């Protein structure tokens, strides 16, 4: 049996699998709000819902319910100017989670 791997491929062995090219959805959490139901029912257009985070606080990245990383929001430049992105500052050990 011959090795069919690409000699230019620098992907670690554990990442070379049929599943490595399957896209996943990552949810970015910027904060939570906990209004009373009566206050929520009164809200309309242009209402402001305060979050438990500040603008410069870290955001959290989740796959499903699992926290996988933290990062900082930033705006892209160039052709993608105005688009939001996340710069990772902390990445979970997927075996043990994020501390």
UniProtKB/TrEMBL annotation:
<dbReference type="GO" id="GO:0009425">
    <property type="term" value="C:bacterial-type flagellum basal body"/>
</dbReference>
<dbReference type="InterPro" id="IPR036429">
    <property type="entry name" value="SpoA-like_sf"/>
</dbReference>
<dbReference type="InterPro" id="IPR001543">
    <property type="entry name" value="FliN-like_C"/>
</dbReference>
<dbReference type="InterPro" id="IPR001172">
    <property type="entry name" value="FliN_T3SS_HrcQb"/>
</dbReference>
<protein>
    <recommendedName>
        <fullName>Flagellar motor switch protein FliN-like C-terminal domain-containing protein</fullName>
    </recommendedName>
</protein>
<feature type="domain" description="Flagellar motor switch protein FliN-like C-terminal">
    <location>
        <begin position="20"/>
        <end position="92"/>
    </location>
</feature>
<dbReference type="GO" id="GO:0003774">
    <property type="term" value="F:cytoskeletal motor activity"/>
</dbReference>
<comment type="similarity">
    <text>Belongs to the FliN/MopA/SpaO family.</text>
</comment>
<dbReference type="GO" id="GO:0071978">
    <property type="term" value="P:bacterial-type flagellum-dependent swarming motility"/>
</dbReference>
<dbReference type="Pfam" id="PF01052">
    <property type="entry name" value="FliMN_C"/>
</dbReference>
<dbReference type="GO" id="GO:0050918">
    <property type="term" value="P:positive chemotaxis"/>
</dbReference>
């Amino acid at each position: 049996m011959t090795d069919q791997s690409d000699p230019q491929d620098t992907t670690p062995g554990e990442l070379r699998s049929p599943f490595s090219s399957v896209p996943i959805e990552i949810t970015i959490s910027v904060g939570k709000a906990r209004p009373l139901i009566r206050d929520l029912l009164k809200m309309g257009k242009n209402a402001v819902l305060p979050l438990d985070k500040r603008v410069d606080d870290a955001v959290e990245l989740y796959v499903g319910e699992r926290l996988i990383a933290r990062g900082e929001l930033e705006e892209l430049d160039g052709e993608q100017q105005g688009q939001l992105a996340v710069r990772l500052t902390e990445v979970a050990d997927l075996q043990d989670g994020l501390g």
